[in-house]
Amino acid sequence: MIGRLNHIAIAVPDLEAAAAQYRTALGAKVGEPQDEPDHGVTVIFIDLPNTKIELLYPLGEDSPINGFLEKNPSGGIHHVCYEVEDILAARDQLTEHGARVLGSGEPKIGAHGKPVLFLHPKDFQGTLVELEQV
What we know:
- The structure is a single chain.
- By secondary structure, this protein is of the alpha+beta class.
- The protein has one domain (2-133): 2,3-Dihydroxybiphenyl 1,2-Dioxygenase, domain 1, CATH 3.10.180.
- It contains three helices and nine strands, in the order βαββββαβαβββ.
- Strands 1, 2, 3, 4, 5, 6, 7, 8 and 9 form a nine-stranded mixed β-sheet that branches.
- Strand 3 and strand 4 (41-47) form a beta hairpin.
- It starts with a strand and ends with a strand.
- The relative contact order is 0.21.
């Protein structure tokens, strides 16, 4: 069901400093900041030859990233994102196997303009999983 790893998301306390570190120290191709109000984050994507890194920064007081950064003030890995061909079929198969979908259970449009869902970390060895339809 799952396809390739689309990205690894890292919550950061300083978005510009993190982007600069990837750009200068690692020589990576760093995109522009992009606000995602439906998800409460500002993101910057870093393109790698085989996947992407998504830097996450809180957008507003209600951002879910605020709580993460309170527990992890230096930042850290927030989630992994896997590609799926049919997000609704993937959701249905996962829920049949006991996985919990966060939120309403209906896909939202993600930062790439494609439908996404998040799966409860307690169902995946403590890892928040995002599915993105390709």
